[in-house]
Amino acid sequence: MTIRILVNAALLAIPIAVTLGILFGLQSHRAATGQPPLFAPEPPPIPSPKPPAPPKNGITKTRYCQKSFGITPDTKGQQYTLNPNQWNWNPGEPGALCVNVTTFNNGTYATSTTAPQFMISWQYPPGPADDPVHAFPNIQVDSGVFPATISSISKVDVDLEWSYGIGNETTVAASLADLQADNLNTNVAIDMFIDSDKQAAQNPSKAKYELMVWFAAIGPATQPIGFAQGPVSTQTLDGNQFNLYTGVNQQQQNVLTWYTNTPVEKFNGDISPLINSLFKLTATDLPKSGDYLGYLALGSEAFSVDKTVTLYVPKLSIDIEAATSSST
Ligand SMILES: *[C@@H]1O[C@H](CO)[C@@H](O)[C@H](O)[C@H]1NC(C)=O
Ligand SMILES: *[C@@H]1O[C@H](CO)[C@@H](O)[C@H](O)[C@H]1NC(C)=O
Ligand SMILES: *[C@@H]1O[C@H](CO)[C@@H](O)[C@H](O)[C@H]1NC(C)=O
User: Fold this and answer.
1) Which domains does the chain have, with CATH numbers?
2) Cα–Cα distance measured from residue 98 to residue 86, given in angstroms and rounded to the nearest whole number
3) Which of 47, 64, 233, 294 could form a disulfide with 147 if both were Cys (CB 3.0 to 4.6 A apart)?
4) What is the pLDDT of residues 191-238, one digit of tens each?
């Protein structure tokens, strides 16, 4: 088929070329003999219609159900990347997770650090006791601030509202009792990585320290590392008490978890005291103020649940301020 079409086109080309040659010849003859050209000069091109401008305002909703994918919505302010991050699940296995993102077409959000609204709907059966987590869907701060030495960071303002509901893509919050009755095991947490090396600090599997702030732990399987040993420190932020637990994970990273006993669904405050107070502790293997913070994301470790649940985050802003000299 293809070859025949090419042959025909080649055959057609001959008469066209011949005709054009004749016309060009005639034209130059008329010009040479002072006659007006046979054809008028080409009219100025008619401007082609402009492509329709994208809507200036309004919102766009998108759904992402793949195993892992970085979604970086356009913004005029601070950039965030959302990721379903189903690191311990493969297509075809039981369970599902989708991230729904609501972006503003104009890229202008409530403040320069406001993130797009999103929701994460998921359902997984229980995994083995020693490997119970299927995914860590999250929203990461893509800030030029990272990596920054901890001593250079003056604030990490977090303005957050979230709810967990029962159902697919629901914005209706369920009670803790109802979530527990459906055997939900999950947390809602900020995850940070710290290392004395700039590159390692930006790599969640290589960084020496993982520092987390849990706003909720739901279900008996959801416990911070070192929980059984009891807290090593306590702090109150925005009226909420956080207790610090420490331990070492399977990858031999030092894990420090600020944990709250009751879910904190609304939080507005500076969490940098939860980082800086580590330097006052007496344990031996702790980050130092000259170490780098290289990564910060908010997400939910998805263990298991009987029915589809939805983490809805209608409000999120993460505002990190660091002295510029150390961010270069
Ligand atoms: C941007 O779009 C959003 C959503 O439609 C709207 O609420 C907001 O007022 C717009 N902002 C500007 C500066 O146009
Ligand atoms: C999720 O995203 C899809 C578009 O991909 C949209 O049709 C649907 O309405 C969204 N769901 C909610 C609850 O916003
Ligand atoms: C939620 O519903 C949508 C639309 O029917 C579907 O595409 C998606 O897979 C569902 N999400 C989950 C986690 O089951």
Assistant:
1) 1-45 (no CATH), 59-322 (2.60.120.180)
2) 10
3) 294
4) 999 999 999 999 999 999 999 999 999 999 999 999 999 999 999 999
